Amino acid sequence: MEGEIDMDKPYIFITRKLPEEVIAPLRAIGEVEMWPYDDVPVARDVLLANAKKADALLTMLSDRIDREVMEVGEKLKVVANMAVGFDNIDVPVATEYGIAVCNTPDVLNDTTADLTFALLLATARRIVEAAEYIKAGEWKSWSPFLLAGTDVHHKTIGIVGLGKIGQAVAKRAKGFDMNILYHNRTRNEEAERQLGAVYCTFQQLLQAADFVVCLTPLTAETRHLFNRQAFRWMKKSAIFINASRGAVVDEEALYEALVAGEIAAAGLDVFTKEPVDPSHPLLSLKNVVALPHIGSASIETRRKMMERSCRNILAVLTGETPEALVNTEWLAQKRS
Ligand code: GLV
Ligand code: GLV
């Protein structure tokens, strides 16, 4: 992170250690520095010091890219987030400073849908509990209701947030002969035709679904969308799955609903504070299956996300329009 900077070459800072072969196209056009660890987030002071001289930042969802970062980043032209979600970035501020914000949609749809469905199956069929049970030597005999869960096939799934990932989940649900309900800001008649998905209000969906699957992005409108009332609307037998962002859920309300038996179980890939504290009350419950935010975590997809982030940076630095631009207003007010 030290050394001379060639004034003609753009300076690109990457907030995690990524494979050299993936970032080679960036090295070809610029001076590239990386935070040297892949399992520890960039230190805030290092991020700020590098933002100060950077033309481009390649960031992770665990980095808070707020006004402070963009204010010091006097030359900053692009923040390329290696995620489809971008709630870690203050997008209006980026636009104000003429900074492009890019993400990695599409390449992770199927991978994230696979994980979401795996979490749904694992929660319904008590897979994690069963795997722990056998390894703990507790399996003494076959018995009629040993680790009996609940069926997935032919049940009703309610998808909140029918974007591309939500549609990929619906496709999987169709293969399981599920009845598919969805709620979204805008109706998607194409998905209704292709997947047989039925549009509902939020409340109708919660009241009818056996599996409530949250895939909506985190915004001011969706923060704590799943509150105590939402869980009360659900069936007592309902299973709640969250694969979007933790803060879409009021975790205290979820805990209370699970303890009070207002819903049956939850499968969570995301938490309000990540990494979640191991002493978090939700992790103490047997009917909670928890995963460490691994929705898009296949080697193939993570590489594609890295490549896409690099392409987004290359485009902006070479004066092109990036493939995945979040703040389209940027086109009218980009920094040169
Ligand atoms: C992961 O959560 C992502 O937004 O890509
Ligand atoms: C992503 O979160 C989506 O809604 O597809």
Order of helices and strands: EHEHEHEHEHHEHEHEHEHEHEEH
User: How many helical elements?
Assistant: 12
**Main sheet overview:** 7 strands, parallel
N-to-C terminal Cα separation, in Å? 25 Å
Number of strands: 12
Unreliable parts = none
Mean pLDDT: 96
Query: What structural class is derived from the secondary structure elements?
Result: alpha/beta
Helix content: 25-40%
Proportion in β-strands: 5-15%
Main sheet: which strands, in order across?
8-7-6-9-10-11-12
Shape: globular
What are the defining features of this structure?
alpha/beta; 5-stranded parallel β-sheet; binds glyoxylic acid; 336 residues; 12 strands
Kindly describe this structure.
The chain is α/β, with parallel strands linked by helices and 336 residues long. Helices cover 35% and strands 14% of the residues. The protein contains twelve helices and twelve strands. It has helices at 20-29, 44-53, 67-72, 91-96, 109-124, 127-135, 164-175, 189-195, 202-208, 228-233, 251-259, 299-317; strands spanning 11-14, 31-34, 56-59, 78-81, 100-102, 156-160, 179-183, 198-199, 211-214, 239-242, 265-268, 288-290. The chain has a seven-stranded parallel beta sheet, sandwiched between helices. Strands 2-1-3-4-5 form a five-stranded parallel beta sheet, sandwiched between helices. Strand 6 (156-160), helix 7 (164-175) and strand 7 form a beta-alpha-beta unit. Helix 1 runs parallel beside helix 12. The longest helix has 19 residues, at 299-317. The protein is globular, with a radius of gyration of 22 Å. It starts with 10 loop residues before the first strand and ends in a 19-residue tail after the last helix. Bound molecules: glyoxylic acid (2 copies). The site of one glyoxylic acid has 9 residues, from helix 7.
